[in-house]
Amino acid sequence: MDVRGRGRSEKEDHDWYFQEFLPFLFNQVNKNYYLAYLVTPTYYNLLEKEGLLTKLATALQHDPVQSKFFLSEPEAINWLRSVKS
Q1: Which residues does 71 contact at the CB level (< 8 Å), separation at least 6?
Q2: What is the pLDDT of residue 70?
Q3: Phi, psi angle pair for 32, to nearest 5°
Q4: Closest Cα partner for 27 from 69, 1, 64, 73?
Q5: How far is Cα 60 from Cα 51, in angstroms, rounded to an integer?
Q6: Are 50 and 83 spatial neighbours (Cβ–Cβ below 8 Å)?
Q7: 36 in helix, strand or coil?
Q8: Is 52 exposed, middle or buried (0-12, 13-18, 19+ CB in 10 A)?
Q9: pLDDT tens for residues 26-82?
Q10: Cβ-contact 26, 17 below 8 angstroms
């Protein structure tokens, strides 16, 4: 999921993501599902500074869904390939 072109998220965006989207996703998938999030360094640092990186990482680790944040496509692709095998 490439969110590098997205602007700053608001509280309502985070609330929707955690309260509606993630529960829906977790209830829909019944096999391993991997999400690689591509973010800008600025956005990554902002998430980290606001404590959202830890919250997101924890919320996104839910069987059968695994997620991870990356700053570049090669890192994301390498991770996706490693979990696929």
Answers
A1: 38, 39, 40, 41, 44
A2: 92
A3: -60, 135
A4: 64
A5: 15
A6: no
A7: strand
A8: middle
A9: 888 777 888 898 989 988 888 888 887 777 777 777 767 788 889 999 999 999 999
A10: no
Does the residue 63 lie in any domain?
Answer: yes
What is the pLDDT at residue 49? Answer: 85
Distance between CA atoms of 12 and 18, rounded to whole angstroms? 10
Q: Structural domain tally of the chain? A: 1
Q: What is the pLDDT of residue 38?
A: 93
- Domain membership of residue 36 (yes or no) is yes
pLDDT band at 84 (very low <50, low <70, confident <90, very high): confident
Range of the domain at 38: 11-84
DSSP letter assigned to residue 31:
S
CB contact at 8 A, 54 and 84: no
